[in-house]
Specification:
Elements (H helix, E strand, L loop, with lengths): L11 E6 L2 E2 L6 E2 L7 E2 L7 E9 L2 E4 L3 E3 L16 H10 L6
Antiparallel strand pairs: 1-2, 1-5, 3-4, 5-6, 5-7
Length: about 100
């Protein structure tokens, strides 16, 4: 007997940071899903990958590197925190309020 099926094997996901398995917690959500969410801080900087597996084996994604950038309060360096600091931050991203 020969049977055909259109069902696909179930996929499993496991996210890792620098090769260490992630688990859901305060800052991590979706550690075993297709989408990982991180409330990122400097401690979360690293290379993230996902191991995707089914009944036929597994494959690992390419690394996605997370960097966290800290904005200075006085972005334009004039010694005063004001609207000009917002403009300076936007300019650093190639944007402008003008």
């Amino acid at each position: 007997m020969f049977t055909l099926s259109t069902e696909r094997p179930a996929l499993t996901y496991q996210w890792r940071r620098d090769g260490v398995v992630l688990v859901n917690g305060d800052a991590i959500a979706g550690a075993e899903t297709a989408t990982l969410s991180i409330a990122a801080t400097f401690e979360d900087i690293g290379a993230y990958d996902c191991v995707v597996a089914d009944a036929n084996g597994e494959t690992t994604s390419e690394d996605a590197v997370l960097a966290v950038r800290q904005c200075k309060d006085d972005a334009d360096g004039n010694g005063v925190r004001n609207f000009a600091d917002i403009t300076a931050v936007l300019r650093s991203y190639g944007l402008s309020c003008e």
